User: What shape does this take?
Amino acid sequence: MNKLTVKDVEVAGKKVLVRCDFNVPMKDGKITDDNRIRAALPTVSYLLEKGAKVVLCSHLGRPKGEFNMKYTLRPVAERLNELLDGKVTFAEDIIGDDAHAKVAALKNGEAVLLENLRFHKEEEKNDEGFCRQLAEYCEVYVNDAFGTAHRAHASTAGVVQYGFVKIAVAGMLIAKELEIIGGALESANAPFVAVLGGAKVSDKIGVIGNLIGKVNTLLIGGGMAYTFLKASGYNVGKSLVEEDKIELAKELMQKAKENNVKLMLPVDAVVSKKFPDPIDDANVEVKTVAVSEIAEDEMGLDIGEKTAAMFFDAVVNANTVIWNGPMGVFENPILAKGTARVAEAMKQSSAVTIVGGGDSAAAIEQLGYKEHVTHISTGGGASLEFMEGKILPGVDCLNER
Ligand code: AMP
Assistant: This one.
């Protein structure tokens, strides 16, 4: 990892602005899952123990640039305060009087959480004046919000990009993402296997393209497999197909061949005549067929057992595995078996196992495998862009080693 981290700089007695990802799920003003708050604790506790004056900031939901108390961060401040023994206060605004007063009153080893950054439209616009005002709160800037690192917003990159803060480092959460995902992309231990699934090829073209130059084996499942199967000449009935991506799928398969990458597509599929509605419909009628036997009125909704066994072997025998996207409609237990089989392989494998954020993370949690993988990324879009080899503004702006 070529970026400085919070452990590389002097923070005692200094004002430190930390961009966190406190975008937690809420219902009726209550936090329903505090994982993201807990995930920030290593960095925040470290700074408090070192005697920094800590100014925390985050977005929550999509308030579209206006104060909207539905999206207040107050419950997050209260939860943080419980977890950090009463060291956290809450500012009712971001660049207003309350925030200024509370930041000015901070003693060493205390923290204040500012109100939701996205109450100001200037945040997402990366407005220079807003960046200047945020930067007034700090001598050191820490980015620990991997989930928004692919965005160039005021708090994720702008404060540094405009030159208002000179010392800009990674928090521990971002450092871990860069070390593990970045490490795999730069110098993975072979065999390096990527498992890609999910709904659409179009969402993952960039990832497939980038990984073809790096992995030994590429396993393709989920809805996107059917575009590849159609491109290989199969009739896939009513399965999800992106017609305008068929040529691209052919090109990617050709590129894999040229790069000696073993690209494996499903050989069988769990099919149904209709998409389950509701999605977890326990009465959905399914059967397993070879991919050459999918009827006109059927759609593939999970990988079949033979495919699952092939994918299982590839993952168990790997030394590095990156996984992004479920193998089927995992929200329905009847259609979650392929995804569960890959998760089981990750558990049994001694490989470094990395799960991209978003739906893959949800799937692995839902199926109870969360503790059995090396790393689950905290960023959905950000981890995809990172795997595509794109530059993330929230990382790019940090000081080099
Ligand atoms: P993504 O966000 O691209 O990772 O896609 C995740 C979604 O893909 C989940 O909601 C799955 O239900 C869906 N999915 C997986 N396999 C299929 C399939 N064969 N057909 C339709 N949708 C699928």
User: Anything to note?
Assistant: The domain at 6-173 is CATH 3.40.50.1260 (Rossmann fold).
